[in-house]
Amino acid sequence: MRPVTFFRAGSIDEAVAAVSGHPDSAFLAGGTTEIDLLRLNVVQPTLLVDVNDLPLTYLEDIDDGGVRIGAMARMSDVARAQRIVERYPGMSQALLLGASEQLRNMASMGGNMCQRTRCAYFRDGQSPCNKREPGSGCAALTGVNRGHAVLGTSDHCIASHPSDVAVALVALDAVIRTIGPDGTRTIPIESFFLPPDDTPSVEHPLAHGELIVAIDVPAVPVARTSRYVKHRDRVSYEFALVSVFSAMRVDDAGNVAELRLALGGVGTVPWRAHRAEEALIGRPATPENFAAAADAEFADARTTPMNAFKVTFAKRAIVRELSEVTS
Amino acid sequence: MSPVVGKPVNRVDGPDKVTGAGRYCGEIVLPGLAYGLIVGSSIANGRVLSIDETAARAAGGVYGIMTHQNTPKIANQPHLIPSLAGQPAPGESFFPMQDDVVHYWGQPVALVVADSLEGAAHAAALLDITYEAGVPVATIEDGRSSAAEAQTLFGGLMPARDERGDVQGALAKAEVTVDATYHYAANHHNPLETGVTTAQWDGDRLTLWDSTMGVRASQLTVATLLGIPLSDVRVITHFVGGGFGSKAMVWPHVTLAAMAARHVGRPVRLTLTRPQSFTSNGHREEQEQQIRLGAGRDGRLTAIHHRKLSVTSPFDDWAEPATGVSTQIYGCDNYLGEHHLIHGNTLTPTFTRAPGESLGSFSLETAMDQLAYELGMDPIELRIMNHPPVDNHGNAWSSDGMADCLRRGAELFGWSGRDPTPGVREEGNNLIGTGVAGAGYPVAFMMPVQHARARIFNDGSVVVQTSAQEFGIGVTTSMAQVGADALGVDLDVLRFEAGDTDLPNTTSAVGSMGATMQSSAVHNAGTTLRNELIAHAVNDDKSPLHRLSPSSVRVEGGRMSSTLDPSIGESYADLLTRNRLLDLEALGSWTPPPIDTPHGLLTFGAQFAEVAVDKDLGLVRVRRMTGVFAPGRVLNPKLARSQLLGGMLWGLSQALLEGNQIDRQSGRWALNNLGEYLVPVHADIPDVQVEFVEVEDDVVGPLGVKGVGEVGQVGAAAAIANAVFHATGRRMTELPMTAEVVMNGGSPG
To answer: Which of B28, B240, B491, B585 would you call most buried, defined as having the most Cβ atoms within 10 angstroms of its Cβ?
Structure first.
């Protein structure tokens, strides 16, 4: 691996100054993806600014019932935190179904928001890849792409987003809080994950040196019965073929009163199923309507011969999940 | 004290492994050690045009860079022959960096040696290599039009076509037929420890610490390639972190490590990275198989036609011999097996977990299941009916056990009363099914004479030695058991030493033959020494055993005594001490029967599986597996069970998870790490039951050991696929059986 300069930041200001003052620098949190990519020569910073000592491991209550999660809180700690388990069980489940316990003990929540795709053509450091090397093309379009996205794709990139917990967070309308050279700001999570369009290399609206310091999860009462189900080839320790986060309230008349639905494994970003939500809210909670909503969500899906099965798979997974939640 | 062979003795090297005290070949520390890293080509077909080393050399800490321009020419290129034959055993009949031609993606084009592994990796990334790239042909789809029937396999060692009777005629006349075509993805071995070699020169003498399944094969191959005397090459291997066939042959990196050490004048440790382990030591090739069965209404097989098409390298006619399995455990007068090959841009495929038998048996055993349905017969009865008392040459089995394995397995698994109707057992979102398959793995006597040495000191302690290496199967433990019983001493006074070509020769522990070969040599060494000691005693007028007939002397716990009066006797130690003998040693050897010995030679087994198939999503989970095997004498049931269980789980892995494919544009393997190339994790592992059927075998060596190295995987994937059919009514003709295969694919049976 390339020689890198390592700097352990003692404060947020120091970390932000160090990265923003150096053109080839990057923050280093848990390192569970970043170190791999360094070794693979996929990312090539010459200065790594370690943010593990920053006082960002907290979880605290905000507003009336929401939770602020420090960016350096470890995934394993967040998964088992009482307030997460009680208020957002689906988020806790998403965390526990991600990676392995060893990785979750290292990986941070802020780092997870910046997790890179597992697309083999991105990770090989050689193939044409617009995400890694803008303008070089996309080998995945006609390559081995069973695991790739069917929603939110473009002619320039079909890489799927790998995170589980981010799927829960887009359903919960979380907000990313950052501190950068230009001060603090908040970014609604759906604006944080950028679809590839014609700039797949730009995955987030973060400025160079802008550090995620916290994730705010608002109070979402319906999320107290939320669930996350992850379907994959291997029972454990694998990225999702399709995952479904759902939180639904059905009123006394049998109509869907509230619904939060998001999908993993199928999108270029953690996929909030807005169309399905719109199709169902106010309508009877029946398997037929669930199926129609799933159809609506995938109406614009773009598939390859290898990943076309994901559409059928995901629709069935949605119908099953909503049916089980209802019953 | 009773014999220790057959006892579930714990691994003697267990503490060393779990505490880290055991040194693997990549952990050998030598003064001045340098670190080598191979740079693989990033094209699959073409030429290296230029290699600019400027930036790499400027990176600092670089001791040397080897390319085709300065790599020494090899002295001889041995041809590919299985290492079991005891000859030089290169993984492919090709050695890289001899010219600028690139035959496959990842082919070594440079080797960087530096003062750290990280430094070598950095310099390697800075090499500026340009290529002239042609279009690769690396998949069946790419090369189908160039396929041709192979005449021989394994460098001429065995015929690629085997024919008896009149298959076409018999198929035409058959009352019932089954015709199925299968596609199998390539498999990679993925032992936890990737290939690694540490090389050190002392003048003209070379020492290699090589992670290998055969120290002798490494010695022979490296000496031949370098053109130096065998006596100048010593190979040491005390611990290996798994092989699964990837270390059965000797791949170029082993010799490159030796060349690099000479090039930089320092010892060199050369480690394959995980991605390189996908392009450096073979794989199980992508293949298509077709099987046609003909049978009478009574269920008796009248015709078997088994055809395989696969991709091999430009250099070798390699195909894992997959069709022979169809003429092993079932009898049939009309048989045709044929192998067709595409020469493409890949390295030579190699032995991989039950080579040939695992996929060959998938075709045969799922077709047999289909036949059972066509006939309305129980699949166990169909198998037993077709299992003959003799092999396909008419030779009686050296030992059988096939029917007993099926019957005992049926009992353990709870087969009786099974409703064969497919697709009718629903539990929640799942469809439930059960399946069975037969298993057989050949005992192949292609190895040379095997040797071992036993040595006793005058305090009664014993060392038994042979060159075989421990690669996780427990040979260090089981051979100590064999040596202790042969010599008549307690296990705790005996140490077994192995993993060094300076010790008496045994052949690579491959093809499920390791335990047979080693135990035969060790047993004979121990027995020879025992007989010498007894002879000393009965000829020694100071011994209480003086003038007894040797046959009336027994030994237990290191003490010789009269079989008539056990109070008359003395210990080995007393005999040696009194005679001022500091030690005594004996060499034991075992000459295997000829390869065409007139016996049917197979290890038999039976596999059972129960699956739950998600009826909407197609995901298959195995709920339980039962395997019953008849491997002859079991040296250590704990170790044997572990090995068979491991084989069964690799079968599960092959059935549901493992599969790699080549990117058709680049010719590169699409998956190159353990995040994406899936093998089972604990959560995938169901309740697995392993049991033995006892059979005595006096052909396969003095102890009657047939081996458990491969047969555990044979039939396991087929049992799972048959269970999937029972669950869903769909025939699986593709491996791995991933969700989309089960959802969309398969054929209604």
So the answer is: B240
Does the structure show a pLDDT above 70 at B1?
no
Spatial separation of the C-alpha atoms in residues B2 and B416, rounded to whole Å: 39
Number of C-beta neighbours around residue B492 at 10 A: 10
What pLDDT does residue A65 have? 93
Looking only at the bridges linking them, the beta strands covering B287-295 and B301-312 are antiparallel
Mean pLDDT of A140-168: 98
Report how far residue B388's alpha carbon sits from residue B403's, in angstroms, rounded to the nearest whole number.
Answer: 10
Rounded to an integer, what distance in angstroms lies between the CA atom of residue B676 and that of residue A47? Answer: 29
Q: What is the nearest CA distance from B431 to chain A, expressed in angstroms?
A: 16
Nearest to A235 among B42, B665, B681 (CB): B681
Tally of domains in chain A? 1
Tell me, what amino acid is at A169? L
CB B271 within 8 A of CB B194: yes
Residues 6+ apart with CB under 8 A from B219: B208, B230, B233, B234, B235, B501
Interatomic CA distance for residues A215 and A174, integer angstroms: 7
pLDDT on residue B8: 97
Question: Could you identify the residue written with the tokens 């011999």?
Answer: B321
Residue A75 counted as domain residue:
no
Third-level CATH fold of B448-590: Aldehyde Oxidoreductase; domain 4 (3.30.365)
Residue A288 lies in a domain: yes
- Rama region for A94: left / alpha / beta (φ>0; ψ in -120 to 50; rest): alpha
Tokens of B292: 């046609």
- The C-alpha atoms of residue B242 and residue B441 are separated, in whole angstroms, by 21
- Domain with A322, as residue range(s), is 222-326
Q: For the segment B635-670, what is each residue's pLDDT rounded down to a tens digit?
A: 999 999 999 999 999 999 999 999 999 999 999 999
| Interface contact flag, A320 B616, Cβ < 8 Å | yes
Residue closest to B213 by CA, chosen among B25, B74, B360, B80: B25
- Please provide the size of chain B in residues: 749
pTM for this entry: 0.97
CA distance B16 to B200: 25
Closest residue on chain A to B60 (Cα):
A3
Cβ distance of A231 and B738 shorter than 8 Å? no
Give the pLDDT band of residue B2 (cuts 50, 70, 90).
confident
Overall fold of domain B148-187+284-444+597-748: Aldehyde Oxidoreductase; domain 4 (3.30.365)
Between A and B, how many residue pairs show a Cβ–Cβ distance under 8 A?
A: 78
Residue A185 resides in a domain: no
Q: Please list the residues that pair with B52 across neighbouring strands.
A: B128
- CATH number, domain with residue A283: 3.30.390.50
Question: What is the bridge-based pairing of β-strands B108-114 and B46-52?
Answer: unpaired
3-state secondary structure B195-262: CEEEEEEECCEEEEEECCCCHHHHHHHHHHHHCCCHHHEEEECCCCCCCCCCCCCECHHHHHHHHHHH
Do residues B478 and B11 lie in contact, with contact meaning Cβ atoms separated by under 8 Å?
A: no
Is the dihedral angle over the CA atoms B217, B222, B225, B230 positive or is it negative? negative
Q: Would you list the domain boundaries of chain B?
A: 31-134+191-243+247-278, 148-187+284-444+597-748, 448-590
**Which residues from chain A sit within 8 angstroms of residue B185, using beta carbons?**
none
Write out the DSSP string of B568-607: SEEEHHHHHHHTT-SEEEEEEEEPPPPTT-SSB-EEEEEE
The CATH classification of domain B31-134+191-243+247-278, taken from the options 3.90.1150.10, 3.90.580.10, 3.30.300.30, 3.30.365.10: 3.30.365.10
**Spatial distance between the Cα atoms of B276 and B668, rounded to a whole number of angstroms:** 11
Instruction: Check residue A47 and give its pLDDT.
Output: 98
Give yes or no for B163 touching A (CB within 8 A): no
In the residue annotation, B710 being an active-site residue is answered as yes
Q: What is the dihedral of CA B262, B263, B267, B270, to 10 degrees?
A: -110
Residue of chain A with shortest Cα separation from B42: A126
